[in-house]
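Notebook p. 47: complex prediction with manganese (II) ion.
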Amino acid sequence: MTTLNRRTVLAAGAAMAGAAARSDQAMAQGAVKTVFTVAPITIPIAGQSEVFPVRRIYCIGRNYAAHAIERGSDPTREPPFFFQKPTDAIQNVPVGKVADHPYPSLTKNYHHEVELVAALKSGGTDIPPDKALDHVFGYALGLDMTRRDLQNEMSGMKKPWEIGKSFDHAAVLGPIHPVWKTGHFTKGAISLAVNGTVRQDANLDKMIWNVAEQISKLSEAFELKAGDIIYSGTPENVGPVVKGDVLLCKLEGLPDMSIRIV
Ligand code: MN
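Predicted complex, C-alpha cells below:
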C-alpha cells in the first residue's frame, strides 16, 4: 500500500467512525431514521395499559426431574442448561379467549410444554440467588411449543436443535401479572389439558432449579437486563398435538390460558 493510499483509507475510516458516532448519538436521542419499520415486541400486563417490552427470551431445559428422565437424562447430575427463542416468536394469548395457534411447518410431532415464565425488570451478572427475585417484574403462563421430531433429529446428529424450538409462534404467553399482585411462585399446581383430558399435571415445587436459582445461574452466563423473560422448564408428560386440538393451561394463582391448533 502506498502512503497516499493508506492516508486515503485512514481518512475514510475516520469519516466512517465519525458517522457511526453520530448515528449512536442520534439513536440515543431517538432521532435515528430507519429504512423500514420493525414492530417492537411487547407483552400485555394484566390490569394496566402499559405493555412489557421484550429484550430476550431464555428457556431452561429439563428442570423437572420426571421430565428430565423422560427426555433421557439423569436429573441428579446435570446442571441447568439454557436456550433462547427469538423475541418475535411470541404469541400473546388474551385471558378468556381461545387463540388460534398455527401448526408449524416441517414437523409431524408437535409437542406442548406448559411452563411458568418470569419477566425481569432489571438484571446484572453473577446475581446471588438470595437477591435474584428482586429483579422479577412479574409472571406469566407460557407454552414452550416444540417441533420434537426436528429437535430429536438434530440432537441425534449432535447439531444445534434450534429448528425444533425457535420458530414463529413457538413462545405462547398469557399476560404478565406484576409480582406486587401475585407474589413469587415457588409452589403451586401447573397443568395442561388437551381436549379436556389432563396430560401434564405437576407442582412448581418439583422444579430442580427454582426461579431464583435460574436467574442466578443464567446471570453467570449472560448479563441479564430489564425486558428479559425466562421460561422455567416443563414438567413431565409432554406430548403431541394435532390440528383441531384445544389446549387449556392452568397455573394456580393466574388466569387460565387456552389455544386451538389450526
Ligand atoms: Mn421447555
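Notes: DSSP finds seven helices and 18 strands in the chain. The helical segments are 3-28, 65-70, 129-132, 148-156, 162-165, 179-182, 211-221.
Next step: compare against the earlier run before touching the bench.
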